[in-house]
Amino acid sequence: MIRPALSALRGGPVLLDLRLGSFASFRINVRVLAICLLLLVVVIALAAWAATLGSFIVPLDEVVRATFSESTRQFEFVVVQLRLPRILSAILVGAALASSGAIFQGLVRNPLVSPDIIGIQAGATVVAVFMIVNGYTDRYIPLGAFGGAVTAATAIYLLAWKGGMSGNRLVLVGIGIDALLAAGTRYLIVKFPVQQAQAAIAWSTGTVYGTGWFDVQVIAVALGELLPLAIVLTWQLRVLQFGDDIAYVLGMRVEPTRLALILVGCALAAVAVAVAGPVGFIALMVPHVARIIGGPMTGGTLLLTALLGAVLLLGADIVALHVLPVALPVGVVTAGVGAPYFLFLLYRANVRM
After folding, report:
1. Residue 186 is part of a domain; what is its CATH number?
2. pTM exceeds cut of 0.85
């Protein structure tokens, strides 16, 4: 039986306590929950609007009919086969990247850390590009990307470890690993003939163009399994943010917990890279903005981060495809927005030092 109860500290957030009998209890920030519901409405509205756009205009009522019931064969083909896979891929990839960025930023207590800055995405990218140019089928690329991401994360972790984990040391090591793996990706693209490398070149820019229902299925299943696991691990993540000594005092098994968080973060980044390529700066920007809106990292804030990432990447894809004079990969738009934001974060970090 679910027993809800409202509670609030003086001047603090309004919290909703949910108790499942004597088995489990949850505390939900009502404000964060309201923002999540609002973002969910925004995602649905953006998705419906994006399905109407293009050289072949589809009325909104036909989009609804083609999606949920029956429409003409022409509308069903355009909406269901061409546009919906791209829209859903953008939503799911944005959610996965933003969640991954939140996990890594929380682990090292540094807002300048994200899987695309410290080499996690680069590890997934170099393996995925190797598989693309060698003709592997799409079904094996997500597994290879995950292996590359985990390998890169392991190398970064071992090289940055020196009697403990320093956020600044991890960033410096990660940037070096990222540069090395990016050079490997470029080598693979240059080495192979244009016919083999063309798909890898387009994919390595970061794009949801050409995604199909198989891609949607892969990332939806992965996100459905990984995001709840990440939400469950948010309490351990918050404890780790106070330092290893406090975590040990509270009885936490620090290294297994950190390893579990790294694996979840790597898997989220890897499956996103496998579907859309290395889309930059979503994992860096969104968690920072989510913390400003929702406060410290909790399960609700992580869910808010995922929804905010979905909104941002879908919005960027709409801009890339329909607003600019020439259709561009979505990674170009996110880089155009994210690079100035990254410089702003560096400026703020320097001011505080």
Report:
1. 1.10.3470.10
2. yes
